[in-house]
Amino acid sequence: MSGTNEQSNVSFQSAADAVDWIVNLVKFGVRPGLKRMEKLMELLGNPERRLKFIHVAGTNGKGSVCAYLTEVLKQSGYGVGTFTSPYIEKYADRIRYNGQNIADDDLLSVVNKLKPIVDEIAASELGQPTMFEVSTAAAIEYFARISCPDYVVWETGLGGRLDSTNIVSPILTVITNVGHDHMDVLGDTLEKVAGEKAGIIKSGVPVVSAVTQPEVIDVIEQTAKAKNSTLYLMNRNFHFESLSSLENDQTFDFFGPYRNMTGLGISLNGKHQLTNASVALMAIELLRQFYALIVEDEVLLQAMKETKWAGRLEMVSHSPRILIDGAHNPEGGAALAQALRDTYHYNKLHFMMGMLSTKNHSGYLRHILPLVDTLILTEPNWHKKEEASRLADLAETLLKELGRSDVDVIVEPDWKTALDRLNSLIGQDDLAVVSGTLYLIGDVRSWILHQTDSEKGW
């Protein structure tokens, strides 16, 4: 034990060293459960009790909903903290105040405060806190004692019930949707996954959701009822109607229990973003009703229109046209395929993808393969990567099923070389898409926009 104390007294000298320590905890994996988080909070003096959280879970769309909420709250003059994962380029992306990443000095002081506490817990029967637990604790400490936001937009990492973010008592809960993702951890049926997501529903706290499958709605409804929480369900309590869908410009009408809003505009692409925007609007309406949130209509319209979210149908290059999208599960693949049909015009579609080994790749590929002319399979620079050759075998099998012998399938495990191959294929009227795990998307985005490598972690 004395060795641990000696080690605990060593402070990090830079934010980069602090981040290295946190990211290296990734080797301890994902260990669901809240015991270590409860101890972390207790030893920090329960800073989470000082904050108003809007807790957001769901298979897809969490990040976009968080982005809409953050922008509306910020433009309405409120201080807003945002915690999201995985990050796209830098570790500090995941902890933000009013849209700005946590400053290096603040990150350093928070981590130096956490380090001895983490070491103390690691030496106890509870075991080593994970990378995500330490990141969650760092965010809470920063928000509670340094930036002190009016609201914290709080995204779950994985699932909900046993996720380390579930240490908080929110004022509002959002469950965007439930799909086929992380089933190795959350359960092998949609009902089981829904049960895990529904674990963030707290007693008497309203829930906004856009889940659609009858069996999933049942799970969410039963949990909300057991917790005396009012459920606001898309297409029952609120809905939207699409007016127009152009690239970087969609308009829609919103119909809610308290009022209707017409002619709203968003810049994010894909029909699924109308769903995400409507979920965020319903959440804002509840904050107005129950927490006297003041949002002027003019500000609301402007904030929705100006919301951006990196790595989601984002055009990172216009000449040649390269679109990146973090779709990595069947539902994400379906949303991406619909957007490629509805929103974008092109002669040929060149598609590059890389995945983690834990995902449902055939469900994803079935949506994408009917559209592509070229398929480049690569690998993210990440320890759980799927081998490009295995993806290629799967793609070839599915292409045979589809009766397509005209797709050029290229295997290039090195993602930078794969990106060069992609670039060399793009004709003037073509579109290139890079999709799959956000670990690949983050790297590609950093490389195209800044010619630098992204930091790694989740």
Automatic annotation (TrEMBL):
| Key word Ligase present | yes
Q: Does the keyword Membrane apply?
A: no
Q: Which residues form the Mur ligase central domain?
A: 56-283
One matching Pfam family, short form?
Answer: Mur_ligase_M
Known catalysed reaction(s)?
A: (6S)-5,6,7,8-tetrahydrofolyl-(gamma-L-Glu)(n) + L-glutamate + ATP = (6S)-5,6,7,8-tetrahydrofolyl-(gamma-L-Glu)(n+1) + ADP + phosphate + H(+)
User: What InterPro entries has UniProt attached to this entry?
Assistant: Folylpolyglutamate_synth, Mur-like_cat_sf, Mur_ligase_C, Mur_ligase_C_dom_sf, Mur_ligase_cen
Record-annotated membrane-spanning stretches: none
Taxonomic superkingdom:
Bacteria
Could you say which EC number(s) this protein's record lists? 6.3.2.17
Record's keyword terms, sorted: ATP-binding, Ligase, Magnesium, Metal-binding, Nucleotide-binding
The Mur ligase C-terminal domain covers: 311-437
Its family? Belongs to the folylpolyglutamate synthase family.
Q: Which PANTHER family match?
A: DIHYDROFOLATE SYNTHETASE-RELATED (PTHR11136:SF0), FOLYLPOLYGLUTAMATE SYNTHASE-RELATED (PTHR11136)
Protein name as catalogued: tetrahydrofolate synthase
To which species is this protein native? Paenibacillus radicis (ex Xue et al. 2023)
